[in-house]
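Lecture 7 notes: from sequence to structure.

We start with a single chain of 315 residues. Read the sequence below before looking at the structure.
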Amino acid sequence: MLNFWQKLPKPFLALAPLDDVTDVVFREIIAGIAKPDVFYTEFTSADGLCSKGKVKLLQKFKYTENQRPIVAQIWGKTPENLYKAAKLVKDLKFDGVDINMGCPDKTVMKQGCGASLIGNNNLTKEIIDSVKRGAKNLPVSIKTRLGAGSIITKDWIGFLLDQKLDALIIHARTAAQMSQVPANWQEIGRAVKLKNKISPKTILIGNGDILSFPQALQMHKTYGVDGVMIGRGIFANPWVFEKTTKVHAREEYLELLLKHLTLFEETWGKTKNYQVMKKFFKMYIHSFEGANQLRQQLMETTSNQQAAQAITTNT
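Now the structure, written as tokens:
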């Protein structure tokens, strides 16, 4: 039976999992203006989901039906906990489960997780097999990078393709490069050739420096990727998933920010710190007269109500 990955148009677009960004509220905002073909949850710890902190962590797994298809991303290094987390994802009726093997954060890597798993083939195979058992018939994917310290596309990506994953997302940089150099799409092209040889049914998604659908279409034509994942590009333009690029007025940005503030308050109340909202202000407030001044004013606010008042005063 075909899973949702195989039913998507090519090239499709996916919103990357971004911690403290792609929560249920932000995804709902994006779904309402220019919906990607696939949504991801935030980066979520499998160990945390198996601990006393599970209840609080489960807020990362909130979603609406409007956000389908949606994939839950989990991370960790303990196969048993990843099995349990995948089982939970299955029980919560997500459309897929993704294992993070690409996070370059030093704290995560010191734990032996994220990008530190790159090249650790034995443990990686244990993890994949455990997640497949927990997920049962849910499609399993991995998000990773070209390498940890150096590019090892043939060895690492080739190994992952041997595991017959449903989908593989490749960020076109190494972990050491973070996001400090241009994305290496030539290596993504090499990965596509490996996929076609080793595991043609695996859906391969490229990630890195894409800011529009026309760019994604070009990557599809040039390198053969099935889809493109966009992460930081959403901060440059919340309408980044529009298939036809349009110019959006200052009023649209301000109206969208007000909607985001309202939904944040309605959804989280006092259970999530208002400071989280501040990382979104630059996305909405830029490139128009008075933007810098308004953004500075918003950064000094301490509540949704104060922010809404500042915006209303400037409309």
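The longest helix spans residues 250-268. Keep this in mind for problem set 3.
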